[in-house]
Amino acid sequence: MPSDDHTPHDDAAELAAAWVLEQARAHALQPLLRDPGKGGNPGRGHAVLAYLPDYDDVHNSLQAARYGAFAAVESGAHPLIGWAMVTRAVNLTTGQITVDSRSETLKEAIERIHFFDNNGWTRGFGAESAKRILGDLPPPDRDKDLLLGSLCALGSRGRALERLGDLAQRVWKKISTGADPE
């Protein structure tokens, strides 16, 4: 459920909850509402609803939904459009599969950046490689929401995505202003 001006969060939550309950009944799954920020591992094979999740909530919810079903009511702070494009998610407000409008250049860059996520893009080789790749992106592909959501779909964790988002902003600011990214 995308965060947009057309569907209030309460309405989106009702649609998502109804879908999750339908999936639970149809596939004999245990329904589960993921509380934002709560850890724990309830196991796998649930029909999961994540309400206004951050990227770690999405990651944990997807673990619980493995072999099950997953719905999210997106928060504006952690856009999932890139995740929806990678996974070909259905927008429950329209019934349409999310179209992947990412350029081939951006898709390739995401794959390359994901390769260097062995340490969450902390200082060193992973961060330096990510900086180089981010710096090579043409301006139309410098979309932090698409980048982070796509990498969330590939399994990157929230803290690592926050670091990468900060890194991307610094690199792109340096390019646009000539300022030092540190």
UniProtKB/TrEMBL annotation:
Domain of life (superkingdom): Bacteria
Name the UniProt record assigns to this protein: Uncharacterized protein
Organism name: Asanoa ishikariensis
Native organism taxonomy: Bacteria, Bacillati, Actinomycetota, Actinomycetes, Micromonosporales
